[in-house]
Amino acid sequence: MSRRYLTIWFRHLTTDQLAIRKPELKGEPFVLAAAERGRMVVKACSAAAMDKGIEAGMVLADARALIPNLEVLDDHPLRGEKLLRALAEWSLRYTPIAAVDLPDGLILDISGCAHLWGGEGPYLKDILSKLRKPGYEVRAAIADTIGASWAVSRFGKISPVIEPGAHIDALQSLPPAALRLEAPVLDRLQKLGLYQIRSFINMPQRVLRRRFGQDLLNRLDQALGLVSEPITPIQAIVPYQESLPSLEPIRTATGIEIALRKLLEILCQRLFREGKGMRKGVFKGCRIDGELQQIEIGTNEPVRNVGHLFKLFELKIATIAPGLGIDLFVLEAPVVEELSIQQESLWAASNQEHLAIAGLLDRLAGRFGANTIHRYLPDQHHWPERSIREAKSLQEKPAIDWPEDQPRPLCLLPRPERIQVTSPIPDYPPMLFIYKGTVHKIRKADGPERIEREWWIEQGLVRDYYRVEDEQGARYWVFRSGHYHDAEPEWFIHGFFA
Fold it and tell me: Where does the record place a coiled coil (predicted)?
């Protein structure tokens, strides 16, 4: 598939924004000015000011000579860049690849996107109408190359949608400035009477390089599509993404659910073809007022089962605020993993046990957060803190079996906590211990079980563990740190038995 690009030119970017925010400025001549080399210089001017002969770069005193009552506002250096970035983020509803083109434009890679709006004509019309509605004066064009699109959007007097393969003809009648050349090069072309691109487009490259430098050749090759022109998207590209525009704004939960299910069906079919499964999903709704609504889900294992994924999203649909309506839905899978046919068979209706466990875990994670659910496997260590590790997925198998020679507590504290102990003889189990201000009188005790440090990992004291039961029947795993003949051995609680 050949690439297609859309460039948008905001003729009065910053002044249009001010007029939108301050309606009293609409239609009035005003400028943005800043100090430069000891004098005030016009940095941007409104359309009304431009009609009266004021231009960016003009000394403010000269501008006041043309319009004595000219309104002057302070310019902020980063105003235009911040605004363009915000507009680029807004345009992500139309394409996943959008870039800022300083000082007053955007570049969109729209390859494979326009058919969702019924073609490039309706696609371009929809974008321009939404930008012009609040008050931006914009021009735009679509072509096979960024250079051709940029040229036609600023200098073209033809249809803004250049058919595939027709960009070379579209460039012929445009002035050299349409190639984004530096002023000295343009001056030399002007002096030689080369007023249109057709005047030199077919000249030998060595002649153009000798007279005008390599920059002209580079820009010409970019516009013709002989070399690629990279752009820097404002947002990382998500490979697995599907979009669904709506003919009418959607405001109901039922409409949102229908859009979600359709997008899941499309995306899961693609994941099936490529042997992938979703681990994280993001469902976005672009409202007609420019606001973005989104919900996210995560799964314990790669999944491409539409029904299961829909149930996870369904838990959060109520948090979507459609406002005046959503006119574009986007489903992304930013995290995917390999998923074989054998793994997919686990989601068959006959495998009820797997369906129940996986579904429960994902729903709990979606409602309470992924960090609330943990699965542990035995690890090849006898030091208690290292004897278990957290599993990465539901299917991960343990390297060793759970040890059964010695009972272990159901709940193991991540770090032992200090307790106060009374024992009749130093090497005896405790008679009572105090934990978090509560006194526990011991009724039964079993032990000790000595566990040595793993000396190849760290040095330290041995531990003598006891299984003790208090008068209420609760059982604990406590230990003495160090040998009993130490002057003042310390005692700790490390776990709780069922």
Answer: none
- Name the amino acid, one letter, at 463: R
pTM (2 d.p.): 0.66
Please give the domain boundaries of the chain with CATH numbers for all domains. Answer: 5-99+109-143 (3.40.1170.60), 241-368 (3.30.1490.100), 411-496 (no CATH)
Q: What is the pLDDT of residues 123-177, one digit of tens each?
A: 999 999 999 998 999 999 999 999 999 999 999 988 999 999 999 999 999 999 9
> How many other C-beta atoms lie within 10 A of the C-beta of residue 418?
11
Distance between CA atoms of 225 and 206, rounded to whole angstroms? 19
Q: What is the pLDDT of residues 223-257, one digit of tens each?
A: 999 998 999 999 877 889 898 888 888 999 999 99
Task: Determine the Cα–Cα distance for residues 111 and 97; give it in Å rounded to an integer.
Answer: 9
Minimal CA–CA distance to 416: which of 374, 456, 451, 447?
A: 451
Give every strand in the sheet of 97-101, ordered side by side. 97-101, 105-109, 5-10, 138-143
How far apart CA 122 and CA 430 sit, in angstroms, is 82
